[in-house]
Amino acid sequence: MNSITLVCLLLCTGVSSFRFEELTQYVNSHEEEFIETLRQWIAVESDSSDVTKRPDLHRMMDMTAEKLRLVGGSVEMVDVGTQALPNGSSLALPKVVTARFGEDPSKRTVCVYGHVDVQPAKKEDGWATDPYELTDIDGNLYGRGASDNKAPVLAWIHTVEVYKALNIDLPVNVKFIIEGMEETGSNGLDDMIVAQKDSFFSDVDYIIISDCVWLSRRPALTYGTRGNCYFFAEVEGPKKDLHSGVYGGTVMEPMTDLISILGADLLRQLKTLHIIRLCFGCSTKLFPLDSSKVDLLAHRWRHPTVSIHGIEGAFSSPGTKTVIPAKVIAKFSIRQVPNMDPAVVEKQVTDYLHSVFAKRKSPNKLNITMVIGAKPWLADPKHPLYEAGKAAVKRVFAVEPDLIREGGTIPIARTFQDVTGKSIIMLPIGGFDDGLHSQNEKISRYNYMEGTKLFIAYLHEVSQIKKY
Amino acid sequence: MNSITLVCLLLCTGVSSFRFEELTQYVNSHEEEFIETLRQWIAVESDSSDVTKRPDLHRMMDMTAEKLRLVGGSVEMVDVGTQALPNGSSLALPKVVTARFGEDPSKRTVCVYGHVDVQPAKKEDGWATDPYELTDIDGNLYGRGASDNKAPVLAWIHTVEVYKALNIDLPVNVKFIIEGMEETGSNGLDDMIVAQKDSFFSDVDYIIISDCVWLSRRPALTYGTRGNCYFFAEVEGPKKDLHSGVYGGTVMEPMTDLISILGADLLRQLKTLHIIRLCFGCSTKLFPLDSSKVDLLAHRWRHPTVSIHGIEGAFSSPGTKTVIPAKVIAKFSIRQVPNMDPAVVEKQVTDYLHSVFAKRKSPNKLNITMVIGAKPWLADPKHPLYEAGKAAVKRVFAVEPDLIREGGTIPIARTFQDVTGKSIIMLPIGGFDDGLHSQNEKISRYNYMEGTKLFIAYLHEVSQIKKY
């Protein structure tokens, strides 16, 4: 324990009149009610990547605003414009929900960021249960978005609710900023943050993000994330799919082009581009069984990587189909680390794939688009925000937290840092095995309820931070 | 015109009492009725590759049997056993429908082969119309299976029907053998042909297959097809899909493995395996714009090729998903040519992909399965069957037919040849632009009706063939 921690602990315990027992008791007695709200939220298929689900996403934002109003917040729904679609049309973005609880200038002001959109999920992807029907199995609450990020957002709202229900003053002013496009790159939010830098954010001291998970069974504080450059590589050839018997051997097949530039050529990049070498190198070399714990975590947090997620337009059903797909779109993403710039990654990847494709002398057309370009983020784990986090974890869980980084991306963290200049902490309550983005995503009752208590305690600890 | 053609033409015209005008007039006056039957057949989603559609496929076989009975055939539905599924269970194969019209020992006997199963099709694949609702646009009849192979099968049944309706004796005895598994490799049919070699096939002189298309607007006779070895390459890794941010860089991703062996390594095969070199070579080298007509047709008919159809298990929807798929299955097929043996291709492909995969030292599991292994077929285009075909084409269309081979595969042609020893002709009526296996498959009213007339004429011409 270092000296800062010691000072903080002295400040945070004993002296205060923090009525923590009463607050946690309230959480315990309202567990089923909190789960019921989560059930209602999970039932909304707020998949931001699927434009056909946009009405559900709008409804999810309305429900979020309504919930915040219900617990006494001053709520606004901020129009952040439209989204340009690949076909040239545009679509309204989900509004960003902001809320304010308290305006006492003598208190600290925190801003809680979260999102209520989710990744795609279908039962037939291999879910044991309907992904949009919250299902409790042995104390685990299964459903798409349970851990990422609906339960954490609700835990924060319940935090405020619990203070209010017990008529206990919030120890800090609390603001909320809840978006609906996180899973596809937080479209529109960057501009909104820039626009509201001197209004909504002017009195904010700290920004809290609870959109990640612990590393183990021990609670964690997160001080860094990787960025994400998500690419579409589209190869377009014949006007329509062709019979592979009739045309095989007489046309350059878009699928062969695509597999070739993704496969052969990504390996060849090992010898050419430094950054891309790093990306593609590690996924071919690393595997936990061969790695020490330090290596493993380094490759998860500090090294870039690439993942090929799938191919749109090709035959993807069970069974056989003898078709030459006319247009195929590979989806792959590169997680970058500090000092990598998405704009540079975009140029390098685009130039490289085009140069490789050109060598094939294919008559087909290649189009590379970076559809998400989210920067990495890094904080100082010695900042008082983290000391407050340690104290809160200690109070609720009676252990020291892990201090970790995150392999995933919370696109907006870096924008908050760059635009507002505020200090940021990531305070996760999700379990290490929650299966974010995967089949059978869940959050446990334990993490949902104890996580709410952690947030309750954290507001108190933050109120104890001395101004520098 | 060679001497055999001349002799045939002399035999076929003038001397005979062939009432061709009456027969074609009947076809003309029943066009709408014939199209209505096709509409009913197209409405059945008899996709043999999708086990969930098996009830539709059984229904399609029943409808075929019923139609043959209605026009006076002696019909049997032959049980050809069950199909083993990848999960270890088994499923009843669709029965094979046989029918017989006439048993006059003084006449020739032909056996018409066809199939009533279809390739997969979904509106969202890019069809302009519902693939299972026959739609007439400018004289083209759009629907899955319209050209491949429902309309040709119906044209043959209508041929018999027309003779009967006009009370004209069939010039030859006609047998039918109609199956429902052609699109997935004619499962069960090989064994049935072997079993019935000395019964159903004993009095058959010739086998006629009309399961292909013309090369141009000119009618064609087809004397060869390529074979088809269809592979599943499955790479299985984590127990479930993983978040690519959280796990990217720390696991060997099945998708990376798969793309790598399909892309990099298939190219490397250029230097190793002769047969595979041929396969993968031509698809990277050939393109119509760079090729003479002879080269183009050679690569379509006489050279092997490979097509990668798609990947099951990866993300294939529009939009973005940051997932590491846990299990991915590439589907690819190799069209082989005479003197290539599917068993050898299977061993070479399997061994090679495993050897390449082994070098990656991936902890994932690779499983290669050849799910279709259909042999190529080649006939003698100077055989009297083809001379009869020329005469029939000349009678109906007043042109000489193209003599062509087919890039696609009719799996059973080779089995008929090897097992029964009978001579075979492929007599297509489908148009060159019918889009078999593709979106917006169609047959034109013209090809459907004139094709029926071609079959009517062909039965007459075959009856004129002298015994050797």
From TrEMBL, chains A, B:
GO molecular function, one term: metal ion binding
CDD domains to which the protein is assigned, alphabetical: M20_dipept_like_CNDP
One term under GO cellular component: cytosol
GO terms (BP aspect): proteolysis
Residue ranges of every copy of the Peptidase M20 dimerisation domain listed in the record: 225-357
Domain of life: Eukaryota
Keyword Protease assigned: yes
One Pfam match: Peptidase_M20
Signal peptide: 1-17
PROSITE patterns xrefs: ARGE_DAPE_CPG2_2
Keywords (A to Z) from UniProt: Hydrolase, Metal-binding, Protease, Signal
Similarity comment: family membership: Belongs to the peptidase M20A family.
Protein name: Beta-Ala-His dipeptidase-like
Gene: cndp1
